[in-house]
Specification:
Blueprint lengths: L3 E2 L17 H4 L1 E2 L11 E6 L4 H5 L9 H9 L10 H4 L1 E8 L1
Parallel strand pairs: 2-4, 3-4
Antiparallel strand pairs: 1-4
Length: 97
Protein backbone atom coordinates (compact mmCIF):
# COMPACT_ATOMS: atom_id res chain seq x y z
CA UNK A 1 0.00 0.00 0.00
CA UNK A 2 1.37 3.42 -0.97
CA UNK A 3 1.49 6.20 1.57
CA UNK A 4 0.66 9.64 0.23
CA UNK A 5 2.11 12.82 1.67
CA UNK A 6 0.86 16.26 0.68
CA UNK A 7 3.35 18.76 -0.66
CA UNK A 8 5.08 21.33 1.49
CA UNK A 9 3.10 24.62 1.23
CA UNK A 10 6.41 26.53 1.26
CA UNK A 11 7.02 25.27 -2.29
CA UNK A 12 4.09 27.33 -3.59
CA UNK A 13 4.34 30.96 -4.65
CA UNK A 14 2.80 33.59 -2.39
CA UNK A 15 -0.40 35.43 -3.21
CA UNK A 16 1.44 37.56 -5.77
CA UNK A 17 -0.24 39.99 -8.12
CA UNK A 18 -3.58 39.25 -9.74
CA UNK A 19 -2.17 40.27 -13.14
CA UNK A 20 0.79 37.87 -12.78
CA UNK A 21 -0.63 34.37 -12.15
CA UNK A 22 1.71 31.45 -11.53
CA UNK A 23 1.24 27.72 -12.09
CA UNK A 24 1.09 27.23 -8.32
CA UNK A 25 -2.05 29.40 -8.18
CA UNK A 26 -3.75 27.26 -10.85
CA UNK A 27 -2.88 23.86 -9.39
CA UNK A 28 -5.21 21.90 -7.16
CA UNK A 29 -3.91 19.65 -4.42
CA UNK A 30 -5.82 16.53 -3.46
CA UNK A 31 -5.91 12.79 -3.89
CA UNK A 32 -6.55 11.88 -7.52
CA UNK A 33 -9.06 9.22 -6.45
CA UNK A 34 -11.23 11.95 -4.88
CA UNK A 35 -10.83 14.47 -7.70
CA UNK A 36 -13.74 15.09 -10.05
CA UNK A 37 -13.24 17.02 -13.28
CA UNK A 38 -14.96 17.43 -16.61
CA UNK A 39 -11.88 18.95 -18.20
CA UNK A 40 -8.77 17.10 -19.40
CA UNK A 41 -6.37 16.61 -16.53
CA UNK A 42 -2.65 17.05 -16.02
CA UNK A 43 -1.76 14.98 -12.98
CA UNK A 44 1.46 15.12 -10.96
CA UNK A 45 2.83 12.99 -8.16
CA UNK A 46 6.31 12.60 -6.77
CA UNK A 47 8.32 9.51 -5.87
CA UNK A 48 11.08 10.75 -3.57
CA UNK A 49 13.55 7.88 -3.36
CA UNK A 50 17.31 7.35 -3.51
CA UNK A 51 17.28 3.53 -3.55
CA UNK A 52 17.73 3.09 -7.32
CA UNK A 53 20.50 5.65 -7.52
CA UNK A 54 22.38 4.18 -4.57
CA UNK A 55 21.96 0.61 -5.86
CA UNK A 56 23.72 1.67 -9.05
CA UNK A 57 26.52 3.41 -7.15
CA UNK A 58 25.23 6.86 -7.93
CA UNK A 59 25.13 9.93 -5.77
CA UNK A 60 22.31 10.29 -3.27
CA UNK A 61 19.97 13.23 -3.75
CA UNK A 62 17.32 11.99 -6.19
CA UNK A 63 14.75 11.96 -3.40
CA UNK A 64 14.91 15.77 -3.37
CA UNK A 65 13.82 15.83 -7.03
CA UNK A 66 10.04 16.10 -6.62
CA UNK A 67 10.31 19.04 -4.20
CA UNK A 68 12.88 20.85 -6.31
CA UNK A 69 10.82 20.38 -9.48
CA UNK A 70 7.75 21.77 -7.70
CA UNK A 71 9.71 24.68 -6.23
CA UNK A 72 10.58 25.92 -9.74
CA UNK A 73 7.55 24.65 -11.70
CA UNK A 74 4.95 26.36 -9.51
CA UNK A 75 6.68 29.72 -9.81
CA UNK A 76 6.47 29.69 -13.61
CA UNK A 77 3.91 31.95 -15.26
CA UNK A 78 0.90 30.61 -17.10
CA UNK A 79 1.25 30.73 -20.90
CA UNK A 80 -0.10 34.07 -22.09
CA UNK A 81 -1.31 32.80 -25.46
CA UNK A 82 -4.00 30.41 -24.18
CA UNK A 83 -6.43 30.27 -21.24
CA UNK A 84 -5.01 26.94 -20.02
CA UNK A 85 -6.59 27.30 -16.61
CA UNK A 86 -10.02 27.28 -18.30
CA UNK A 87 -9.30 24.29 -20.56
CA UNK A 88 -7.29 21.98 -18.29
CA UNK A 89 -7.08 21.02 -14.63
CA UNK A 90 -3.67 20.71 -12.98
CA UNK A 91 -3.74 18.30 -10.05
CA UNK A 92 -0.84 17.57 -7.72
CA UNK A 93 -1.48 14.46 -5.61
CA UNK A 94 1.63 14.89 -3.48
CA UNK A 95 4.40 12.34 -2.96
CA UNK A 96 3.97 8.59 -2.88
CA UNK A 97 6.20 6.50 -0.62
Amino acid sequence: MAIRQQIDPNLLPGAGRSDDPRLGHWAQFEDIAQFKSRKPLIGLFGCPDDAGVLANRGRAGAKQGPSEIRRHFYRMTLPADAPWDQKLDLLDSGDIY
